[in-house]
Amino acid sequence: MQPYATIADIEARFRDQLALVAADEQTGLRDDMRVEKGLIDASIEIRGILAGRYSSSELSALDADSLALLKIYCIDVAFYRIALDFSRSTDNIKERYDQTVKRLEQIAAGKGALTTTMPPAGGDGSADVGEIGQNEVALQAPERVFTRERLGRI
């Protein structure tokens, strides 16, 4: 399982804060193993929240825009987890985490959406199904074999 964000992504957004929050207690150097663990845990938490609406195949087929959004969310969740792991959480970090979880729960509840690169409901890319929204049910069935006309009206 690939995390939604990397250490480089966190560094790009919170370089100085990461150095302070993730510094090892003994050496004072950033502990990249614990940061990686925080990123993996954050990605698992995100998938767990979104599983109420999206299948694992849909989550693995997200388009670039949705992945970019989840990267931001992953950074906030991971940063919170890292700060907790090092006992260095702040109100600001906790507030970003709470807002991120709330937004993910809203997406899972249908008050937002992620987009995928998967073909439309037909599965073969055909356009005969029409435009189907995220929360709509699509039913496609084969032609009926036993009809009144074929059975000669009983």
From the structure above, extract its key features:
154 residues; mainly alpha; Phage gp36-like protein; Phage_Mu_GpJ
| Main sheet: strands, sense, barrel | none
What percent strand?
A: under 5%
Total DSSP E strands: 0
Determine the fraction of residues in helical runs and give it as a percent range: 40-55%
Could you explain the architecture of this structure?
This protein has a domain at 7-108. The chain contains 6 helices and no strands. The chain has helices at residues 7-21, 32-50, 56-60, 64-85, 91-108, 148-151. α1 packs parallel to α4, α2 crosses α4 and α4 packs across α5 (91-108). 23% of the residues are buried.
Quick summary:
This protein has helices spanning 7-21, 32-50, 56-60, 64-85, 91-108, 148-151.
Describe how the helices and strands are arranged.
Layout (H helix, E strand, L loop, with lengths): L6 H15 L10 H19 L5 H5 L3 H22 L5 H18 L39 H4 L3
